[in-house]
Amino acid sequence: MRIWLTSVLAVALFLLQTNKLWSQNSTSPSSELALQDSVFEISEVTVHAYHYERKLMEVPASISIISADQLEQNTFKSIDEVLNTVPGVYMQQATPTTNRLTIRGVGSRTPYASNKIRAYYAGIPLTNGVGETTIEDLNQSVLSKVEIIKGPSSGFYGSGLGGTLLFDAIHPGKNQLTVNYGLSSYQTHQTNAKLSLNGKNSSNHLAIESLSSAGYRRNNETNRINLNYVGQFIVGRHELNIIINQTDLKGFIPSSLNLETFQKSPQQAATSWASVNGYEEYQKSLLGASVLSRWQNNWQSTVVLFGQNRSSDELRPFNFLQEDSRYFGNRIILEKKITTTSGIWKLLLGNENFFENYDWTTFENEDDGTTGSILSDNHEKRNYTNLFGQVEYKTSEKWRISLGANFNHTRYNYTDRILTDGDQSAEHSFKPVVSPRLAINHALSTRNNIYAQISHGFSPPSLEETLLPEGGRNTDIQPETGWNYEVGSRGYLFDGLYYDFSVYFMMMKNLLVARRVAEDAYLGINAGKTAHPGLEYYLEYKLPGSNLNWQHKFNVNGSFTPYYFIDFVDGQHDFSGNELTGSPRRQSNLEYHINYKRRLIFRLHYQMVGKIPLRDNNSVYSNEYGLLNLNVYYLKSFGKLQSKLFAGVNNITNEHYSSMVLINASSFGGNAPRYYYPGSPINFRMGVELAYQF
Question: Which tens digits make up the pLDDT trace of 422-435?
Answer without folding.
Answer: 777 888 888 899 99
